[in-house]
Amino acid sequence: MTIPAYPTFPRGDSELGKPVGILTLKIDDRDVSARRGETILEVARENDIFIPTLCYLEGLSSLGACRLCLVEIKGVTKLLPACVTPVRQDMEVVTDSERLRRYRRMILELIFSERNHVCSVCVSNGHCELQTLAQKLGMTHVRFDYLYPRLAIDASHERFSIDHNRCVLCMRCVRVCDEIEGAHTWDIMHRGISARVITDLNQPWGESETCTGCSKCVQVCPTGALSEKGKSVAEMVKHKEFLPYLQIMRRNER
Amino acid sequence: MEALKETASKAQDETSKRADDPRWRRVNRVMRLHGYRPNALIETLHMVQDTFGFLEMEALKYVAKTLQVPLSRVYAVATFYHFFSLKPPGKHTCVVCMGTACYISGAAEIMHEMQEALHIEPGETTADGAISLVTARCLGSCGLAPAVVLDGEIKGKMTPAAVLETIERWQADASG
Amino acid sequence: MGKIRMATSWLDGCSGCHMSLLDMDEQLIDIVGKVDIVYGPLVDAKVIPEGIDVVLVEGAVSTDADVEKLRLLRERSAILVSLGDCAVTANVPGMRNRFPLAEVLKRGYEENAPLNAQIPREDLPHLLDKARPLHEFVPVDVFLPGCPPPADAIVYMLQELLAGRIPDLSNKSRFGA
Amino acid sequence: MRLDEIREIARIEADREDGYRHRINVCVAAGCLSCQSASVKDAFEKEIAKRGLENWCRVKGVGCLGLCSGGPLVAIEPAGILYHTVSVSDVSDVLEALDDGPLDRLVCSGETPFFKRQKKIVLENCGRIDPERLEDYIAAGGYQALHTALTLMTPEEITREIEKSGLRGRGGAGFPTGLKWSTVAKADNETKFVICNADEGDPGAFMDRSVLESDPHRVLEGMALAARAVGANHGFIYVRAEYPLAVKRLKKAIAQAEHAGFLGNNIFHTPFRFDINVRLGAGAFVCGEETALIASIEGQLGRPRPRPPYPAEAGLWGYPTLINNVETLANIVPIIREGSQWFAGIGTEKSKGTKVFALAGRVNNTGLIEVPMGTSLREIVFEIGGGIKEGKQFKAAQTGGPSGGCIPEHSLDLPMDYESLAQVGSIMGSGGMIVMDETSCMVDVARYFMEFCRSESCGKCVPCRVGTTQIHELLGKITNGTGTAGDLTKLEELCDLVKHTSLCGLGQTAPNPVMSTLRHFREEYRAHIEDRFCPAGVCRMGRGKEGE
Which of D208, D407, D415, D466 is the most buried (most CB within 10 A)? Predict the structure, then answer.
């Protein structure tokens, strides 16, 4: 196993004279200010600069797993994920370049090739983050062979179902169940290409001893993997607004 | 109320059974040494597998409960690490080393022959529970490639024929 | 300036993309003035002609006959458009791909047949192991996903092609609806 | 324990050894054990007892003697004779020959390049001491470096010695060890940890295993020195469960060291305290990555997390943590004992010291070797390795395992150091070196390594999880004769993506075997695709899918 050398961030020395905790940097040649400790993604969003994300969700811990939010930083050879990289004084960030666009499209191609994402017959058609990203990033076709895994649908829960064909392993369900609901019903079994989300000891969801039926996992799922039963495609809109709200409430409690 | 009593006494039985059984005492000892902290999970699973040969569902539940680790996390850890097995091993085990040195010296050929002879894939056990076929990443016997472990005994410079000979003896044992 | 020689073709699909093509309302008149449709389900021609300028292909590649037809179309056309999700991703026809072919045939022709259950073996094109998108067989010049692609996107694409440009279709259509 | 007590133990031990006219050392490391060296050792003991020679001869099981292809190996001291392929039936002949000179049919000449060209620092005790006896280690000078460091040096001085020695990490990319130490040393925290990474996962490497099995105390002492330098009081050794013998010897060594007061509280009557615990890996290559390794010690899934923060700032349970691999730590004791200048005098300008390689594959002499950095590949393969088996043609040497690359024939004169290896698209890695001849297909080798990475990927990030699978699929197509002209471009694009966008080192280096073979053996790929022909005759072509 290779341990790559520690990359070092170019440190600016013009921090003197700035108000405490506020720093300035450039994103796509725009001067922006930020609070110390904020991530590149947060600062970009405050300034309406688009960086694509899939595993990231405001209100949950960040993973840096989908790699769609990779950005270029001047003076750093590696691409870094915007969702977990804190801003630094005088950092120069590029969120959009030919190279980034190419990588992002390829990452989407890989996700589409991994499982059976048939948008036309998906319950989330029209409300799917993956579908929207493909359109937004101009991924019009997949050049790699589809893997066509044989995956199951678990509809044993009385109100929800999970279709593994649509899962992108973003782990939002795992995180929301652990971090917000506190049940930790979900996790991921196996590893690599064989990884699957599971409930409890890989039991049918309906037989889970720990699931509270709160539906948070369904609401945060970016695709049609987790859905509510009995809803039509038009109705299957996900509501994630509760997350930042819950976070604020919990912080206030403390 | 009756049902509740029954459940309670069952749980009691379960605990005392585990306290009486020397095998479970080994497992409990590991957990106690680590102060029943969740971070003892992997060490505990090692002991369960070492004691029982594999990780049974009931054992996973028991460990989850005792260490206060979510069930799904226990299952995740037990399947993430390839050293752990959720299925009982066969009576005999044939481990074919697929390390680089063994691979370029013909390990793939040995593995191929074994699959043909046993009609199973690597990681599986024959239907009669007699023989498990396993691959190893590297046994560290690269100097003696290709290496095969037959029931715990490392054999170097192996050929398909030599391994088959042992396999056939095992098969004869099982049917005899 | 002479008219553009256009062909359309329908492989393993539902013809929905052709419907969408016809769904462009009054803009159809404008387009028809500029193109000759020389081959396809919309016209009578039985043989694929030489010298096609643009061919729109709907549907996935599912049989050996599809492969043959697609190769011929590619050979005889300057620009090949992969029209709709079936052509671009194999879409619904590709949903059989996660099952072995024998299982698929058994399911379709035996288990679900109320009478005369039998798998057809003669006079039909040989089904491929998997239904696949066009670009896994031939080079494709333009991809227009959608199930079906909206008529407006088709219009935009044709207008751009007529103007001699390879269109940028991102944002005009998407996978699924 | 005090220094004079150590010296006393060493003296008694030396006297005891000198009391024997003949000392028979039988290699009981993994390689020789797999050719039944244990029964050879038993046979010696029985035969000596039968002949009543107990007061003249003693038999000892020792760690790796290096020349694994000649196992079981038996060394006779003080005559300095090494016998190869000793079987139980040879035992009485060997005993007969003790007084009359060597037994010609089994003797290995000590003058052969295999032994003469090596320089042993890390392996200095391997094959000389009984790894299960602390006294043996002490007699070989053990724990004196720790005594020196604790009584005569400040932590800063220890770190400075390591910095000045130029030692670089032996687990992979070669990060300067001293710099790593000083980063952890500077971290402001009362609690710090030192971790020894013994999760040797490269499928063609076994040097860490040999060190642990042959000289476990050296690693413990190295860890204690590191702990003193960075200010840590707790250590962990994360070792593969697949190495039961190494685990057993480590645990035994820790117990001995604790009992003797080399670990625990008030070591050498100083305020310094340090304890070491062993944690078992469970079969996940990715746990060689620092953050995954830490997660695994915490009992979690071995999934890497983005860095920064680096383990040096926030590691095990969030505390500053130093992680070094076994071979790196095994270099610490000699550096402190002999001084940084001595160490810096060995090797090349940028790569100091020696490197242990697990030499395997199609060479005559396979086994564990240690050479100065900068030794040429040609010297290793043709002199130490004794050339290619059966007089075949050298084709390539693979270093760095699944993260490394293949070095072709025209680079045979390449010096083995970090920079030169990087230049040809490989890496030093942990030290696996597999030599290949014309019977190896380079596309198949690339496919083999990609299969490894695919199944070892933790699955967290998309490029590694799906990218390695797609690369493996493409290589599968090429090696079964269904590759197409566009596949090489796709391969290159995917390799570029996986290398630059994966989360951790596993993914970032996974494409290396493919990229290096594409670079040096492109015509072989072409032959598979265009002519449906495998030049090495390894790939079974024409097993393609129907309809294509």
Answer: D208
